[in-house]
Structure formats: structure tokens, C-alpha cells
């Protein structure tokens, strides 16, 4: 990692750990410029490295071509103090990508596999909150049904990530064994470290999947209650 790098660290979403990437720009002096949520209003700030990483591993976003480091830092500094955060159109990745290559893009939003309006409802929780306070049980049932569909899609995403992590762990195990056979101890050690990282990722994803299952069950319980309420109103 170096001055002007676009860096990212895994952060929680919907109380699930390690679900999305939080992006920023490495200033090369132990600070990072990023959309900080340290206060109520998300603001682009220059913060110490530890406030960006939260003690988690930090990775570099690589590009085939990008601005030189001085330009990247200049662009990042030009937006210090901005408070126009929007999950779908101006999030931390939009900002960092704009600084690095001049395009306000968020690949993880576009790759999440959900329509923008669906993802926004999932993250804000407005769908469930509205259903819980809806006087019309039929309308509330419709809202909860949408929420159940959203959690099903999220569960599929987690399962796909889990399958990929298992595959990568197996691959790194094979690489380590092959390196040992060839007497390449350093390569074997590095491969085993990557395998351990994937094993940790697998455990995290399994926890996330279990929590998503709990959320789904809670939604289903609410649906059953609303169905009974709707039946009483009809009778």
C-alpha cells in the first residue's frame, strides 16, 4: 500500500460482519480520506489509519490505469467536508473510485444482484418498519412478503460467497501441498496462511447465514400473525 492507493476494508451490513467493502484513499502518512460515519452525518474526512481499518486487514483496489498519486490526493482533498452520502449513488466506493480513476462507480452495488430500490429497502429497514405499523394487515402482508424475498436473495448471496470461500480454501491447500513436495517451504507457508484466511471467512459467512436465517424466521412469524389478523377482519 502506498500514497494515492484506493484501499478497502470489510465492514458489516445489516449487522452481518464482513459483507461489504468500505473504501478510502491512502494518504501515505498514516491517514485515510474516506466517507467517515463516526458522527450522525456521514462526512468525507481525513482520519487515522486505525479509524479506517477498525483493526481489520486492508486491501488495495488495483487498476490497469489510474491517476498519479498527487492527483488522487488532490481530488480526495477537494471533497473534504462533503456530506452528500447516498448508499446507491454516492457511497464510499463511488468517492474513492472517482478520486482514483475519475469515474463515480460502485462495483459492489452493481454486483450485489439486487435492484437498487430493493437493496435500499433491505438496508434501511423501512419496509419492515412500515409493515409493523401498518393499520391494513393485507398491505402489511405485502410488505413483509417483499422483505422475505429480499432476505432470500441475501441468503443466496451469502451461500454463493460461502461456496467460493470453500473452493479457495481447497485450492490454497493443494497449492501448499504441491509447494511442500517441491521443497518450497516459504511458498507453502504463504499458501497455508491464505487457506487459514479463507477458513476464517467461511466461519464468518456461516455465522452470517445463521443470523439471516433468524431474520427470515422472525419475518415468517410476523406473516403468520398478520394472516390471522387479516382472517379475523374478514370474518
What does this structure look like?
The chain has 235 residues and is α+β, with helices and mostly antiparallel strands. It has 2 domains: 6-110, endopeptidase domain like (from Nostoc punctiforme) (endopeptidase fold (from Nostoc punctiforme)); 116-234. Helices cover 59% and strands 14% of the residues. The protein is built from 8 helices and 5 strands. The protein has a 5-stranded antiparallel beta sheet with strand order 4-3-2-1-5. Strand 1 (6-13) and strand 2 form a beta hairpin. It is flat and about 70 Å long. It starts with 5 loop residues before the first strand and ends with a helix. Mean pLDDT is 80; it is low at 14-18, 112-120 and 122-135.
N-to-C order of helices and strands = EEEEHEHHHHHHH
Write down the overall geometry: flat
Q: What gap, in angstroms, lies between the N and C termini?
A: 67 Å
Share of helix among residues?
55-70%
Q: Average pLDDT, to the nearest integer?
A: 80
Percent of sequence in beta strands? 5-15%
| Structure summary, number of beta strands | 5
- Whole-number tally of structural domains: 2
